[in-house]
């Protein structure tokens, strides 16, 4: 049985993509040609790379009836010839399409499984550090913990279900309840991230522009976080209402009764305006606020003091601390924008029928989908790299784990031996006090060694 990746359209052979919301490339099937009809839905959102559909006539092995009618879609009918002699069991072995090959599935596993693992571990560690360390319980860190919870929601529910159903199985195996929840949680997670970044920028803006004003208290910050989640849940509420299971216009899905999870809007107009509104609420408005606040903050923090104005060491330390925090949050904002903005712009462009027939579209959609899903594992890396307290919390947590503690101890012992023998980087030399007093002579050596090396192999200092 030979498989082709083309469609027979009126006036010649042309490749075409079916469009259906929230779905990726599907399988190609053209076998044993016979007269039928080609049904093309009006484009809605994402790609079906599939072939023509048969009519419900006597010569068909099966036909589309009312079971594959999609509400709100307009159909055009063409005469075509369709091949359909295949079975559900041997399809994977016979398909030569790139999206169904074993090599592509291996690539998908290698790209998405690390995101799932690193995002859960990293964001879980961020939450643990914030809530278990008293000095880390600041207003900004509460907002950062809210960001981490949103990323955990995305990584635990959306990442595995999306790549398994879209790229591995090509159908939805998780049931109707998870179909509603996964689509809902993805929108909620993005909205929470956007609104929390806005809350952080406003908190930083007030603290830097009006330093004498009362700061936002921790209690007030918890109310803001609850409000952010409530607004995100309310804004994304239409998505689980219109989500459901459906058999797409693909011969393989129809014959094998394989369902997909998608949004089924009553009309394309409603879908378009909601998608446009969601794009504005997720990106346009938050980015406008973030650009304004961080531009003013940058001018104030990096501006030089007027000549003749005194600047103490304390002022310099506070200015450096503010610059570090602003740099870290700016990095978080830039990474969020670079990861999610291309995918959401693509969602809007898919409403254009001419763009939906663009040949490289499946590859662009796959790349942008991976980029958007990968965002949930980047923030912990940024915190660890750009914030000394988070970095210290990560190190102390590693010392509490037996396997990692042994590795860290062996590494630190090796560094000390290399420094002693001169083969490695030398440890910093501390000035030794040669004068001995009565109090220093009575001091216990063990206490001195613990102060000098609080993270020794035998002891683990508590997170404070």
In DSSP terms (H or I, runs of 4 or more residues), the helix count works out at: 16
Mean pLDDT equals: 72
Report the C-alpha radius of gyration, rounded. Answer: 29 Å
How far apart lie the N and C ends? 67 Å
Largest sheet features: 2 strands, antiparallel
CATH-wise, what's the superfamily of the largest domain? Answer: Rhodopsin 7-helix transmembrane proteins
What is the N-to-C succession of helices and strands? EEEEEEHHHHHHEHEHHHHHHHHH
Whole-number count of domains: 2
Here the CATH topology of the largest domain equals Rhopdopsin 7-helix transmembrane proteins
Question: What is the global morphology?
Answer: globular
Model description:
The protein is mainly α and 464 residues long. It is 59% helix and 7% strand. It is built from 16 helices and 8 strands. The model is unreliable at 1-84, 412-432 and 434-464 (pLDDT under 50).
Protein topology:
Layout: E1 7-9, E2 12-14, E3 18-20, E4 35-41, E5 46-48, E6 75-81, H1 91-94, H2 102-132, H3 139-169, H4 175-209, H5 218-235, H6 238-242, E7 243-246, H7 251-256, E8 260-263, H8 268-302, H9 313-349, H10 353-356, H11 361-374, H12 379-386, H13 388-400, H14 402-421, H15 438-442, H16 445-452
Antiparallel strand pairs: 1-2, 3-5, 4-6, 7-8
Protein name: RYamide receptor
Extracellular side: 1-105, 170-189, 243-274, 351-363
Keywords: Cell membrane, G-protein coupled receptor, Glycoprotein, Membrane, Receptor, Transducer, Transmembrane, Transmembrane helix
């Amino acid at each position: 049985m030979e498989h082709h990746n083309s469609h027979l359209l009126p006036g010649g052979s042309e490749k075409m993509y079916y469009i259906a919301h929230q779905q990726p490339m599907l399988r190609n099937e053209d076998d044993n040609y016979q007269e039928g009809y080609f049904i093309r839905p009006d484009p809605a959102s994402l790609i079906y790379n599939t072939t023509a559909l048969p009519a419900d006539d006597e010569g068909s092995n099966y036909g589309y009836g009312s079971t594959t009618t999609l509400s709100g879609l307009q159909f055009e009918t063409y005469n075509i010839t369709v091949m359909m002699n295949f079975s559900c069991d041997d399809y994977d072995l016979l398909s030569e399409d790139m999206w169904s090959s074993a090599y592509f599935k291996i690539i998908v596993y290698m790209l998405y499984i690390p995101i799932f693992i690193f995002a859960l571990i990293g964001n879980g560690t961020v939450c643990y550090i914030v809530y278990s360390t008293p000095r880390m319980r600041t207003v900004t860190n509460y907002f950062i913990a809210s960001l981490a919870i949103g990323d955990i929601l995305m990584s635990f529910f959306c990442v595995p279900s999306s790549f398994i159903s879209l790229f591995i199985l090509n159908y939805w195996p998780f049931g109707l309840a998870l179909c509603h929840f996964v689509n809902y949680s993805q929108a909620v997670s993005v909205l929470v991230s956007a609104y929390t970044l806005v809350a952080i920028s406003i908190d930083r803006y007030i603290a830097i522009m009006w330093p004498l004003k009362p700061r936002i208290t921790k209690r007030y910050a918890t109310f803001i976080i609850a409000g952010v989640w409530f607004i995100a849940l309310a804004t994304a509420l239409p998505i689980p209402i219109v989500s459901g299971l459906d058999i797409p216009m693909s011969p393989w899905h129809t014959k094998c009764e394989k369902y997909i999870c998608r949004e089924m809007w009553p009309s394309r107009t409603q879908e378009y305006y909601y998608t446009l509104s969601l794009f504005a609420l997720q990106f346009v408005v938050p980015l406008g606020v973030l650009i304004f606040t961080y531009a003013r903050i940058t001018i104030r923090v990096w501006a030089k003091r007027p000549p003749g104005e005194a600047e103490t060491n304390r002022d310099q330390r506070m200015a450096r601390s503010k610059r570090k925090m602003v740099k870290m949050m700016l990095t978080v904002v830039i990474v969020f924008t670079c990861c999610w903005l291309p995918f959401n712009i693509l969602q809007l462009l898919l409403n254009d029928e001419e763009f939906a027939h663009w040949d490289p579209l499946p590859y662009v959609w796959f790349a942008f989908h991976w980029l958007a899903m990968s965002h949930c594992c980047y923030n912990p890396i940024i915190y660890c790299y750009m914030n000394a307290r988070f970095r210290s919390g990560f190190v102390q947590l590693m010392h509490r784990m037996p396997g990692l503690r042994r590795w860290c101890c062996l590494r630190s012992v090796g560094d000390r031996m290399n420094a002693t023998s001169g083969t490695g980087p030398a440890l910093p030399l501390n000035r030794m006090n040669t004068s001995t007093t009565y109090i220093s002579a009575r001091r216990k050596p063990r206490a001195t060694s613990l102060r000098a090396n609080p993270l020794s192999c035998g002891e683990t200092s508590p997170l404070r």
